[in-house]
Amino acid sequence: DQQVKQNSPSLSVQEGRISILNCDYTNSMFDYFLWYKKYPAEGPTFLISISSIKDKNEDGRFTVFLNKSAKHLSLHIVPSQPGDSAVYFCAASAAGNQFYFGTGTSLTVIP
Amino acid sequence: NAGVTQTPKFRVLKTGQSMTLLCAQDMNHEYMYWYRQDPGMGLRLIHYSVGEGTTAKGEVPDGYNVSRLKKQNFLLGLESAAPSQTSVYFCASSYPSGYEQYFGPGTRLTVT
What we know:
- The complex is a heterodimer.
- By secondary structure, chain A is an all-beta fold.
- Chain A has strands at about 5, 10-15, 20-25, 30-40, 45-50, 55-60, 60-65, 70-75, 85-95, 100, 105-110.
- Helix content of chain B is about 0%, strand content about 50%.
């Protein structure tokens, strides 16, 4: 059973606009969440993370929001750029040894 | 620094054949992981290691074995390949309690 879900397989956004990628989880023991970005034929690369003691973390154009009561996190990219076109995975962990990944959302930023 | 490297990049096996995938990292990371990525399934953890000489099962360990004889290397073995093991395999490494994982470029394996 999928413990981390990304219900939108794809998303298209105009350059300069905001991209919002969503992720839901079922395990209330998860205490750390990460977003990875993946280009074709490459391995995922770390983007941003958030601990369960926070509800927001920012890094430049990227912001992750965590809503623990709803078991939901989202990644905001503002402004979106064509180079942001990639597959984005969210991942979650309880105690840090095993990570559970979502199925990914393919983002296309249209110039 | 090469980061995380994986050998080979591509491989085609016949059902029942065996092979070993090699992962190497030069970042002195304690933790290493093997994942598989399948369409519609995301990345799923096969096995992981929290240090030299230690291994543990992940989400989908059946049909695979691993060994971590040296800190920098993590080997994934398929003793008798099955078509269900057709996938892209990713290796990753991290510091202890360093939740950020560094991934290799992947190995595309096809079992016919």
